[in-house]
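Our consortium's second objective concerns turning raw sequence data into structural hypotheses that experimental partners can test. To show how far this objective has progressed, the report includes one record in full. It was chosen at random from the queue rather than selected for favorable results. The single chain below, 384 residues long, was entered without modification.
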Amino acid sequence: MRAVLVGVDFGKGDFLASLEELALLATSAGAAPAASVTGKRSSPDSALFVGSGKAEEIRDTVADLELDLVIFNHALSPAQQRNLERFLKVRVIDRTSLILDIFAQRAQSHEGKVQVELAQLQHLATRLVRGWTHLERQKGGIGLRGPGETQLETDRRLIGDRVKMLRSKLDKLQRQRITQRRARERNHTFSISLVGYTNAGKSTLFNNMTKAGVYAANQLFATLDTTSRRVHLGEAGSVVVSDTVGFIRELPTQLVAAFRATLEETVHADLLLHVVDAASPVRDEQIQQVNAVLQDIGADHIPHVLVWNKIDLAGLAPAVERDEYDKIRRVFVSAQTGEGIVLLRSAIAEYAQANGARNHTARHDQQLEIETATENHDESVQPH
């Protein structure tokens, strides 16, 4: 499917880097970017987002190149999307829909698939304009519609029922995850989560450290499902390392909410390894984006070490950098070549030995206090 990419520069952030990222997203979703249309505005047009003149330019590009799809590098309102499709006579999707589509293609675990479907339904429910009769068939059809109920109302109710069922499933899966995590805590297992911008090399690093054979590829959102493996670190004993979904600028709010259960591994970790693509020209902005999402999910209080990955591409040497208090601040590695991995393992072992027992004692005391104080402790996020 050949597409034209549309980006509007509102004077915020690195516009060109954002557009390059959109091309990667489109390719990851299976589209073939054939052209791009860009422009500058102070604010979006309420009807067409880009204004009538730029919309005509997009329409001409679609017609001249016989394109099938228009992809906007922004979130469109339901009205803007409908207006654009009527004007351009071709399918239009926004950045949110594109990311949701990639997630739908990549989810492998039962939990991942449930989370993706929930996020898609929440997004699409705001764009209902009929065309949801396939949901009616799942319910039996005959006798379903009440007296005087319109098709649109029926569709909304069916989606509401499906969303309720998916949330119930997610709650059950989340309780199972909490049980598994408590078992690890009882065994005093030090837990580590890999976090970072999408395509920073987390899964390659995870495979290098754990020999897990997790799918890793040079594409956005290669990993969607959290995978955990035990790693032995000599005198420091065993730790549990978890690979998590990558973050991205303007991550759809539906996904932040729907993936809360998966990201809970991050919230409850003893240490975060923030993996950074050292070769990326916008690495500082990517670090800020990851920190913003960590704050959104309540994980910004957890100690973290920056892991500058891809040093082979950035022309850097393996090293460990410490702050003025002799605490490890950054570790420079290449997950692809293995350079610096020994240094990283030593850094983790040092941190686990120095902080593991203290963290688990503190967390255990907090857990007892919370369980005594409230019936709903399962949803609490305890600080370290």
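The partners drew two points from this record. The first helix runs from residue 15 to 29. The chain has 13 helices and eleven strands. Both points have been shared with the crystallography group to help prioritize constructs.
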